[in-house]
Design a protein that fits this description.
With about 210 residues, the chain is mainly alpha-helical. The protein has helices at about 1-45, 55-75, 80-100, 105-130, 135-145, 155-170, 180-210. Helix content is about 85%, strand content about 0%.
Length: about 210
């Protein structure tokens, strides 16, 4: 009976936190979409100019997320302190917030994140900076993208390289379609959330088994 009460208390304490995380993350991402329109208006660049619905590009974007996820999965297994710090940070910060999250809610959150960040960075900033050259545009956009994902120094570098990857997804396909990097970003984040959820649950089970001994 005591175990049931503890579980019930746990659910009551974590559910509001998880709902706040999903709602807060969605609102922040919607805010980034609004910022994208504002910055786009100031730079005379529409964040929707290169965003077109296309099933083929949707599939390309989804498949393009796989190399990113495999890289994330591979680095999580490496015995390198920097990558282990990133993984532990994500487990500690995101794990409790997604452990009992509903899959569809997490996916919607990832859609907002993908839309917001790609509309701002690739849709507006990269498109605007292209007037100074494609390489300049990619470097400028993704250094800014990496810095704004500042968790650790290594994570800044990783985020910058991932941003470059998504920039290339935009420019290497003709006609350019922002749907590709948006989809890649969305699917990648979603798979990472699921993996972090798995790692956190696994870590909790190990801690519980250790305490029971």
């Amino acid at each position: 009976m005591a175990d049931w009460d503890e579980e019930e208390d746990f659910e009551e304490t974590t559910a509001p936190e998880q709902q706040s995380f999903i709602l807060g993350g969605s609102l922040i991402s919607i805010g980034i979409i609004v910022i994208a329109f504002g910055v786009g208006w100031g730079l005379d660049v529409s964040p929707l100019a290169n965003l077109n619905w296309n099933w083929t590009d949707l599939l390309i974007g989804a498949l393009a997320a796989l190399p990113l996820y495999l890289f994330f999965f591979w680095t999580a297994k490496l015995p390198i302190k920097g990558f282990q710090q990133i993984q532990q940070f994500l487990i500690e910060e995101l794990g409790p917030r997604v452990e009992h999250g509903k899959i569809w809610e997490l996916f919607i959150l990832c859609i907002f994140i993908g839309l917001g960040e790609e509309m701002l960075f690739r849709g507006v900033l990269q498109s605007w900076a292209t007037q100074y050259g494609v390489i300049v545009a990619i470097v400028f956009t993704n250094i800014l993208f990496g810095v704004l994902h500042s968790i650790t120094r290594l994570y800044v570098i990783v985020a910058t390289l991932m941003g470059v990857y998504m920039s290339l997804l935009l420019i290497l396909f003709t006609p350019q379609n922002l749907l590709i990097p948006v989809t890649t970003h969305t699917v990648y984040d979603f798979m990472c959330f699921l993996y972090i959820m798995h790692l956190y649950r696994q870590q909790k089970l190990q801690e519980q088994a250790y305490e029971a001994e």
